[in-house]
Amino acid sequence: MSFDVNAIREDFPILKQTIGKYPLIYLDNGATTQKPQVVIDKITNYYTNENANIHRGVHFLSQQATTAYERARTIIQKHINAKQSYECIFTKGTTDSINLVAHSFGKLLEKGDEIIISALEHHSNIVPWQFLVEEKGIQLKVIPMNDMGDIDINAYQKLLSNKTKLVSITHVSNSLGTINPIKEMIKMAHKVGAYFLVDAAQSLQHFKVDVQELDCDFMAFSGHKIFGPTGVGILYGKEELLNMLPPYQGGGDMIKTVTFEKTTYNVLPHKFEAGTPNIVGGIGLGAAFEWLSQLDLEAVKYYENELLTYATNQIKEIKDVKIYGEAQHKSSVLSFLIKDMHPYDIGTLLNQQGVAVRTGHHCTQPIMDFYGIPGTIRASFSLYNTKNDIDLFIKALKRAVTMLS
Asked: Which tens digits make up the pLDDT trace of 97-109?
């Protein structure tokens, strides 16, 4: 395994800036990652040299843009090892992808059908299913978690039944860093005839994810958390399942024929991509995955685990610190509180020293309710972070604690 963090950092121009007199220490990667120069250049090139609407255009620019957009889809397909490129649907991001499944798959559900989620879910993997509870009378079941931040697999087994139609689970918890045993959970769901959606918003940027190896039915993720642009993401779905589902939205490009009496729908992926898409976002996301695919992802995973262990050991030396989320299998997230100090106050004082962290409930209020806290301070790491970043973060944190004591 080979990994040169200094070479990686050279790809990210934003990391060279300062916040006042302090170097930027960016530890808010769980919210969004920074962008390598190749992604920025790809976006600039599109608007400079290729800007046109895609599909059906016979002129040069439209054909150039279409080629670039569809090439991006193929790059993403190969990275996640989907069988076909048209199994990768461009969306606005993870939230949009989950809502697409909730809307389209939800049309096939009946009163009394059951969907299973877990106590670790982001709000975007809770609320869309609650809409179906209200609209169709489905039952929403929740797998409980323990104090360490692991979900209860035995409880999951008991929740599964022939009434279970879909299980939708986060691969990695955005607030606690827990890596769920997704492959095992998918097998368990399939045994009762249920489909499985993986929320991969927090996993693909940290390690290799292969949809065929997992055998997941759907997978959702966002570009902006994987070194790509905001406002774009992917819903992967198995071909036969996507063909079975009704469209999410109506409009241009998702149709084959339209009359005032009847409309017939287009083939995949266009059936789920109504209207002019985020063309530059898709092209930029393709560039991000092309950049990521050139790295040794096993080395990335090992390096980030080293960072997490180093940061965890350092922060435990601070008096009255409590870490939330100590699962055996974790990825790149350190959530904590310090005695009675408010997370926002700590975050503000860290910011004044150039350190960017996230404070609050991280769109996982049920997790915070479980622990009986309003929120946490979350430092989340990426492949361009260093042990020096962590040293400066800990130094700034100790200073903030002293000021608030």
From this structure: 999 999 999 999 9
